[in-house]
């Protein structure tokens, strides 16, 4: 039973890794159990046993993307000192993550937010939740910059959250469109200028 369980866990992770790549290129709506089965040379019934429906597959794909993003971006960024170094580390890690094409179509969440921004349902609700959590995280790190004296008292936190998110999404979009990495460099330069940082 242990061997069967391990194989099941492996199959699920391999399936979700492929699902994330598909979603960043063709959208979450581009995911089907049949397509994954064919591409991974697995039985459709086997994949169905893991997810049960297209919607459950979409939700599991989002969770998997969160896990990968946490490992590549969030955990390393939080090793940086509190305040501006940590906020810059988070932004830099985000840009490096997209630049490296850890997911085939760049930033997973930029892609799915654009795909589901005018929809309703469980997947939309999860995407909105992630967007709010991300903005709250940026807001907390900006507030820490103020507490550490790295940003002035009275800084408009919500405005700065908007600007950082917009710059990151624009860099991801423009780089994918033009196949050029210079957009990431421009975004990081803009963020450093906005935060009054050098280097």
UniProtKB/TrEMBL annotation:
Q: Which UniProt keywords apply?
A: DNA-binding, Transcription, Transcription regulation
Which residues does UniProt call coiled coil?
Answer: none
Where's the Tetracyclin repressor-like C-terminal domain? 83-191
Upper classification of the source organism reads: Bacteria, Bacillati, Actinomycetota, Actinomycetes, Pseudonocardiales
Asked whether the UniProt record includes Phosphoprotein among its keywords, one would answer no
Domain of life the protein comes from: Bacteria
Q: What is this protein called?
A: Transcriptional regulator, TetR family
InterPro entries (alphabetical)? Homeodomain-like_sf, HTH_TetR, Tet_transcr_reg_TetR-rel_C_sf, TetR_C
- GO MF, one annotated term: DNA binding
Q: Residues in domain HTH tetR-type?
A: 17-60
The species this protein belongs to is Actinokineospora terrae
